[in-house]
Amino acid sequence: MKMRIRRAGAFLLGTALASLACGAQELPKPTPAMQAGIDKDTSRHFGDAPIDPGPLATDVSPALDTAAVDHVTRKVADWDLARSRPYWDQIWTESVMYAGFMAVSDATGDPKYRDAMTSMAEGFHYGFRSKLSNADDESIAQTYLELYLQGGKKNQAILDSVRANLDQVIDLPTLRPGDPRIPWWWCDALFMAPPVWARMYAATGEHKYIDYLDAQWAKSYEPMWDKDEHLYARDASFVNKLGPNGKKIFWSRGEGWVMGGIARTLQYLPKDDPRREFYIQNLKDLAARTAQLQDADGLWHSSMLDGKDFPAPEVSGSALIVFGMAYGINEGFLDVATYKPVIERAWRAMVTQHIYADGRLGDIQQTGAEPAYYLPSSSFHYGVGGFMLAGAELHRMVTPRVAPDTVATTDPGVYAKLHLQTPANPKLRSIFLVGDSTVRNGNGDGAHNQMGWGDELAQFFDTSKVNIVNRAIGGRSSRTYISEGHWAETLKLVKPGDVILIQFGHNDSGPLDDKDRARGSINGVGDEAKEVDNPVRHVHETVYSFGHYMDQYVKEARAKGAIPILCTLIPRKTWKDGHIERQTSTYRGWTMAIAERDRVPLIDLNEIIARRYDAMGEAAVEPLFGDPHTHTTAAGATMNAEAVVSGLKALKHDPVARDLSDKGNAVVAYKP
Fold it and tell me: Which GO terms of type biological process are on file (predicted)?
């Protein structure tokens, strides 16, 4: 049975003549059995496949640059976050999506996806879907363990739950008692389980988890790896099974599962693991073969060797293949000249032909074990998860790495020479500003319609009396501003009586030792510390809490005879019930705690600005931002600079009152 489907513009079912007129492609319609599977998946809230998904998106670009990649990735992520949230489950169809959300937060710096995953994990009490869990039911622990590893202060409840579940199966010779199958008997399992065991090793240092991983993958490789085709059979039952065209059946999503599984395993596999080179070579072999099988439209068919009987492009497998290839390029395993064009073609096809105006990602095959038919609108969470992983990895591929003389803003991909300011008149007193890109964005010239408040502060002061010296650097956290030497260089310029405004928090929530930034600090204000090998600076480093670093700024500023003033971080444009969300339980609260403990002046910018936004309302606040949630325009920066002055005037002893300009004198003091 056939139907004609239009794949460009609005989704259309029509007569053969009308379809041909709009350049449609004849595609097989799901059989009754396949449709029953689609209906079942829909009823379980794995996704859906409406007849009319609306028009394709016109606000996305397939360009491989940071802004374009981030925009389209977040568009799809935002749509699926809203769609899926009421129906979160511990099942694998959701856990792949959860992994994608974590990756997008890490890549873009937007914490809302990680915050959502924290809420999800807490709601399930870090539990698994079943006892004696199989690979599918273990997969949710990828997200649990990333929350543990990246969360600064460690949540022991996560580790206890995952340990209890993994240790139940670690000594089982087969899948379960009475079931003779090997634990990872189907290729999907190689995405679901190995990354969990690798992360568990990273969390505990217990080598038994890596030993189990290596042993089980070896058991899976032997029956499923086709040495002639350099592809994985879905499971042992497919080794001799042939498709309608008489060729072996290799499922694109299955190959994507394995490539993605290798990538996510290598992320946490020890560098000295004896099987590490095996995984790398396996990824190389898969990349080479899948590149050969890429269709002219840029994607892969659900049946890798049978584009005639399965002519539709399949997005979940294609996205995972792109993720695996991009990871290989980023890690230096795959040749850029060979594989970047493959990725470019695939990404272009996904972005231009399979994303709808509302953010829906289509052409995702329903759950199953082999190639099948589906509608272009078909969108299931695991496929969106694969796309998010691909987008996050492409972000890493196209975003230049930070070199010693460059700086990343917290808007990923925007780079600038440091060009840090020094006092214009060394004879005058100075007000130094230390912070991130919300204080000084890039070169402070308004590029990308973004400006930090520090570059608008001078208008409120009489610069014939005082220097305004903006030493903030985009992309830095309380930790990295110190560890990279910027704080020490600033202190060299400080004289007794100078004032130092210090604001951090936006970049402290990331991982402690990831390959791209390694800028996170440990949550809270305690004495916790962790030894890490910093892969960005290539040094061994002791990482401390956010409070530790803020305390260091205060003490070392005072040692120079300066007056430190702590500022809570400016709020993000995140609304809830008509109000801007505060960060009282995290960086705002921790900054306030250090200010109280050290008896240092505090400007509560988080609250001052949030109150102003609340009073203005969402529509009026929107033009004050140059990106979705963090970085302000020049107008927004000016308003925030005015908030700084308002906060200074509210201090019991305002150290700069005599240095204000007429505009500064007109600002009303903040009243808590």
Answer: carbohydrate metabolic process
